[in-house]
Every structure is written in structure tokens, then in C-alpha cells.
Specification:
Shape: globular
Order of helices and strands: EHEHEHEHEHEHHEHHHHEHHHHEHHEH
Low-confidence stretches: 1-6, 8-15
CATH topology: TIM Barrel
Largest sheet: 8 strands, parallel, barrel
Oligomer: single chain
CATH class: Alpha Beta
Radius of gyration: 21 Å
Number of strands: 10
Number of helices: 18
CATH architecture: Alpha-Beta Barrel
Strand content: 5-15%
Number of domains: 1
Strand order of the largest sheet: 1-2-3-4-5-6-7-8
Structural class: alpha/beta
């Protein structure tokens, strides 16, 4: 069979032994339950460590060194590894300074002492630094490296990578590309299974650089414009929920047939019940409910495990922003359940209404090279599978519009 002839409909075989990399929320009571599933590792980092990461500090889970040590020991007792994230896309050129290199070296020494033996990076220099100074670490390349071709994958493998997270936002449904990448390298390849990012997102580089600078312990205000924009777009165009290149639990065998057996599940800091729901669904390869329960990072019925006022304390920068102007953003947080529970999901993607042969619709073409309006496949599925409560949609879109006006008019700032 040629690379371009891969047929996902032909794969309905006996499940292979997939393993999962699961987001950490640092709940020690969750760990024994995870041991019942094929969780190879959990991933996370200290809320602030002076090294850029992939999430703003205000979204992090408060965690002391003592907490981390206890958590890692519990994981080890249940046969689960911890992967520490050094995955910032940008370090502001501080990586060329002695102070930054001393800081990252001290952190890596601390991780060794804590029992960590896996790290994730997204920049080639940091990969070389870790491999040269700390050869005991297995190093995974994060999604922010944007590995989406055989050539890019081979570059990282030859530089010393032990594993690579592929640019799942764009290629999870490009089967010819996935097969070619798998054939090009020997290292482990990982796919993010449950993201809801826009397909081939035009804001991706801007977004990941914003995250990097919102997690490096600086005092600069970060407003997640990209998240606001894409969330608004999904409400305006519900077909975006289908176009996002997530993988259904039922379709893991399609990817395993190409040699992909490691899958990453998001999201850090969400309630334990939701993490357990996600690993259960993907381990059992079946989910009949509302797919947004596996995809979104907010809106849960359970409270998010954060200490009081953590997010607000790390978000607000009084010298830069007038807190009174952020009422639309706080209203959005309340409406969408960012930091507090919601009684019910106002958005529904009914898994039972997504066709069993869903992936067949992507077999013969490359979505990145096509005009969605000329295809219409995802739009047709969205009409039957996606529903949004009208009152919720109206209220949230109104708040997005208010927030956008404040941002573009420059009315947020206190100076």
C-alpha cells in the first residue's frame, strides 16, 4: 500500500497496547485510580520556576517542592513516571546569559534529586544542553516545536530526542503525512488526542510565544487574546468543533495501525473526576456522551483545585491594567466556568451523532490544502452533532465583543 493510499476504514482491528501521557493536577488521591489504566506518565511543572513553559502562571496549580516530592514518590510507587515541562517556545534570548543557564542547571539538578528522569523541551538548544549536561534524562520534544514533516522529525531525532510530540493540531487527520513521519524516524512519536484547537491555527505561533512570556516569572500582563478569539469563533461557527483534529477514543486503532501507540491527554489543573473520565474513555476506546467533556478545559461541574485567589493574584498587574475595566473578562470566566463550576454544559457535541466511519471523510484529501466551504463535510456533521444553548451563545458573544472593544481601543490600561 502506498503512503497516500492509507485507508482508515480498513482498520477496525483488535486494539493494540497504547499508553497515555496524562496531564497532572497534583491530586495525590487520583494516583491509585490512574494505576488501573495504561498511564505511562503524567506531565507538569512547578507553577513558577523561572523557565518559560506552555501555560501562563495564573493557570498553574499551586505547588511546593515538598508537594512535588510527595507526588512523584506516589507516582513511582504505582509505576508511573513524571515528565517535567521545560517546553517554552521562547526564552527571550535569556538562554544566552550565565544567570539563565545557572538557573536551568540548578532546576535540572533539583529534578534529578526529586527523582524526575523525563523532561519535555521545545527548543533545540535546550535539548542539546540537557543531553550534554544531564544524559540521564529522556527528552521529549513538545508540540510547540511544530514537528509536522518527516524532515523535521528526523532533525530532532538526530539532535538527540528520545520522543517527539507531533504537531497534532494540524496533522492528526492527515494520514499520509502521519505514515511518512512514522517511517522516517525510530524514536517514539506522540499524538495529542483530545485538543480542541483550530485546525492549522493561524494564531499558533503568537499564542505559544504569549504563553512562554506569561510563565517566565516576569511582571508583564498577559491577556489570552488567542483563546478569546478562537473560543468566540467556535460559538459563531460550530463546525469548528468538528474541524479540530481531535481523535475519538473509538479511532485509536487507526493510529496504532500506523505505529502510533503513545497518546497525550489534556488538560493540566482540571478536576480529578474529569481526568479520570478522559483516561477511562481512551483506555476503553469508547465514549457515548458529550465530547466536549473530553475536549474543553473549563465548564466542569466540580471546582478546579486551586488555592483561594491564586489565579487572580497571578493575573492582575495593577500598574499596567485597570481592574475595573476587566469586568467583561470576569463575566466570561463566570459564564464559561473557567474558575468555578457550571451546573450543565451549554455546548454539546453528541458522540452518538458523529458517524462511525467519521475518519473516512478525511481519507482522500489534505484539509490544509482545501477550502472548507468547497468541502462541507465537517459542516454537515456539525449540523446534526453540535448544539449550543441560544441564550448562552448570545450572552457570551456579547461579552467577547465588549472585551474586544476594550482591547483594540486601548482602554484596559491604567498607565
Amino acid at each position: 500500500m502506498k503512503t497516500t493510499d492509507f485507508d482508515p476504514s480498513a482498520v477496525r482491528a483488535t486494539p493494540r497496547s497504547a499508553v497515555f501521557s496524562l496531564a497532572a493536577n497534583y491530586d495525590p488521591e487520583l494516583i491509585p485510580a490512574l494505576a488501573s489504566y495504561p498511564v505511562d506518565e503524567v506531565y507538569g511543572k512547578f507553577p513558577t520556576d523561572g523557565i518559560s513553559g506552555g501555560r501562563p502562571s495564573y493557570l498553574a496549580t499551586p505547588l511546593s517542592e515538598i508537594d512535588m516530592r510527595h507526588y512523584i514518590r506516589l507516582l513511582d510507587r504505582h509505576g508511573i513516571a513524571f515528565n517535567y515541562l521545560l517546553n517554552g517556545a521562547c526564552f527571550g534570548n535569556h538562554e544566552w546569559t550565565r544567570s539563565w543557564q545557572k538557573r536551568v542547571t540548578a532546576l535540572l539538578n533539583k529534578l534529578v534529586e526529586l527523582g524526575v528522569r523525563r523532561v519535555t523541551v521545545s527548543t533545540p538548544f535546550l535539548l542539546e544542553l540537557v543531553k550534554r549536561r544531564f544524559p540521564q534524562f529522556k527528552v521529549r520534544i513538545g508540540i510547540y516545536a511544530q514537528v509536522d514533516t518527516p524532515r523535521r522529525a528526523r532533525f530532532w531525532e538526530e539532535l538527540g530526542a528520545d520522543a517527539i510530540v507531533l504537531e497534532s493540531f494540524s496533522i492528526n487527520r492527515n494520514f499520509s503525512r502521519l505514515k511518512a513521519i512514522r517511517q522516517a524516524v525510530r524514536c517514539d512519536l506522540e499524538l495529542i488526542a483530545n485538543h480542541v484547537c483550530l485546525m492549522n491555527c493561524p494564531m499558533q505561533t503568537y499564542h505559544q510565544n504569549g504563553f512562554a512570556h506569561a510563565s517566565d516569572d516576569t511582571s508583564t500582563l498577559f491577556i489570552d487574546y488567542c483563546f478569546l478569539r478562537c473560543s468566540r469563533l467556535r460559538l459563531m461557527d460550530p463546525s469548528q468543533f468538528i474541524k479540530s483534529a481531535w481523535i475519538r477514543p473509538e479511532d485509536l486503532a487507526v493510529y496504532e495501525a500506523m505505529g502510533y501507540t503513545t497518546f497525550k491527554l489534556l488538560e493540566r489543573g482540571i478536576p480529578s473526576a474529569e481526568l479520570l473520565r478522559r483516561i477511562k474513555a481512551y483506555s476503553e476506546r469508547r465514549f457515548d456522551g458529550n465530547l466536549v467533556e473530553l475536549l474543553l478545559s473549563c465548564g466542569f461541574k466540580q471546582p478546579v483545585r486551586k488555592k483561594s485567589r491564586w489565579s487572580l493574584r497571578h493575573f492582575f498587574k495593577p500598574r499596567q491594567v485597570n481592574p475595573l475595566r476587566l469586568k467583561p473578562l470576569l463575566d466570561l470566566a463566570r459564564l464559561q466556568g473557567w474558575f468555578s463550576p457550571l451546573p450543565e454544559w451549554p455546548i454539546r457535541v453528541d458522540a452518538r451523532l458523529v458517524p462511525e466511519n467519521f475518519l473516512d471523510g478525511f481519507r482522500d484529501h489534505d484539509c490544509a490544502s482545501m477550502d472548507c466551504k468547497a468541502c462541507g463535510y465537517c459542516e454537515q456533521i456539525a449540523k446534526q452533532a453540535v448544539s449550543i444553548e441560544p441564550e448562552y451563545r448570545t450572552a457570551v458573544l456579547k461579552k467577547y465583543a465588549e472585551m474586544e472593544n476594550l482591547m483594540v481601543r486601548g482602554e484596559l490600561w491604567s498607565v
